[in-house]
Amino acid sequence: MKHVALLYLASILAGFALVNLPAISFLSGLFPFFHIVGALAVLVFSLALLYQGLKALFSK
Q1: Is residue 58 helix, strand or coil?
Q2: H or E, element range at 3
Q3: Amino acid 1: pLDDT
Q4: How far does Cα 25 stand from its chain's mean position?
Q5: How many whole angstroms separate alpha carbon 60 and alpha carbon 22?
Q6: Residue 6 CB contacts under 8 Å (≥ 6 apart), including other chains
Q7: How far is CA 13 from CA 18, 23, 33, 49, 58, in A?
Q8: Taking residues 11-34, what's their average pLDDT?
């Protein structure tokens, strides 16, 4: 269970990295795609982490 939470945290950080990716010249066309994918990754894995935390809290 601890490994899953760490994986979710790493995924959230990767999403933030995609959102804050600098616009490099050869990747400038893909910048909106990276921004959307990064925002979705942060949202999805944050919700999954909250769900796992609430499930662990109320299971006892």
Answers
A1: helix
A2: helix 2-19
A3: 66
A4: 25
A5: 45
A6: none
A7: 9, 19, 17, 13, 27
A8: 86
Residue 26: phi, psi to the nearest 5? -80, -15
pTM exceeds 0.85, yes or no: no
DSSP-assigned states of every residue in 4-44? HHHHHHHHHHHHHHHHT----GGGGGGHHHHHHHHHHHHHH
Within 8 A by CB and 6+ apart from 50, the residues are none
Amino acid code (one letter) for 23? A
- Backbone phi, psi, residue 16, to 5°: -65, -35
Name residue 28's amino acid.
S
Cβ proximity of 34 and 18 under 8 Å: yes
